[in-house]
Amino acid sequence: xxxxxxxxxxxxxxxxxxxxxxxxxxxxxxxxxxxxxxxxxxxxxxxxxxxxxxxxxxxxxxxxxxxxxxxxxxxxxxxxxxxxxxxxxxxxxxxxxxxxxxxxxxxxxxxxxxxxxxxx
Length: 120
Hints:
Number of strands: 2
Distance between the termini: 68 Å
Strand order of the largest sheet: 1-2
Shape: elongated
């Protein structure tokens, strides 16, 4: 927030308003620069689509990217369908704690690797 200047009754530098008895504050929209590396072909296709949708002018890629970011952040995270996992665990593993299940998986993995050792 910009500081209020007593001597001339204004707020801040370029985002200032002259004030009399009340102080009026202008909302300042903050921006952030995000730099990423993407595949050349993907970037070319994205620019082309952005310009087709928003016009062949400055800011079309920015508008398209902001729209995608808004959509991505608004999308609610879907809860998984845990019912689809029914029957996925063998009966011999039911009732085990996560630690017990992990140890049994390690044993199976070690048994497999001991039987299938590579000869150098």
